[in-house]
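seq:
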Amino acid sequence: MKRKTAVSLILAAAAVGAPVIAYAQGLPKLAQKKTYKVGFAQTESNNPWRLAQTKSMQDEAKRLGHQLVYTDAAGSAAKQVSDVDSMIAQRVDAIFLAPREEKPLAAAVKKARAAGIPVILLDRNVDQKLAKAGTDYVTFIGSDFIEEGRRVGEWLVKKTNGQAKIIQLEGTTGSSPANDRRTGFENAIKGQAGMKILASQTGDFARDKGRQVMQTLLQAHPDVNVVYAHNDEMAIGAIAALEAAGKKPGKDVMVLSIDGGREAVQLVADGKINYIVECNPKFGPKAFETLAAYAAGKKIPAKIINPDREFTAENAKQLLSSAY
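struct:
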């Protein structure tokens, strides 16, 4: 019987759920080459933000001459884990991963590392108790989600003088943006006796789910005067629910969001959304620039934070053309 390599033993152990012991200290090396075969494990493609992110990655890969192995997990953490496994089997040079959920994908990151494939996380993080930047994956590129939530909360405190009855539409349960956007927002309004969150429920970052959830919560809390949605899609869904109930979004009920897609920015200009913190999806240039720097042996920080703008009634028309 042939002896199995250390990598194959690790992958076999991981497949049956056994503890995985790293076969080497530090991150896998990446040779400098003109072109790479790179995996991009996308979490879903059901909204404009994800479509814009995917296009940015594909466009930049094409511009550089890289082969991009693209997968779409269709909103399933289990499928995304399987997608990463497939990329490992295809021996890609590196993997870009937008984790659907923090815990399951932390294990997938460690499997890739054990197989000698460096991973760069895009826009969502993994559970930091299970996987660490600089050890298990190269870096996280994205926005500061806690800061996004904090900015929304601070804007609301200022605009309402600390008086608000709020419904919070949360993102996908277990995802880093949902966890952090809630934390940032709630920390920002903490101590404001006149601000109360009437209800918080996941809308799974989806427009129709956001509409359905808002419709139900509106019946239970007709006195709501603020909706804080963790993304534009749920905010747009909430607007539909408010209008169906005879309320004027932006006036009777303030609507706050994060992302800054063109449709939502137009709604700011129209007065139906009051405030948006941007979360820019155009990751391609920064992602591949970081990959090249890593291959060149340059020191990569644990987090690379994208600069994000804000959209208000005062600037929405001016900035509309630059929104994704």
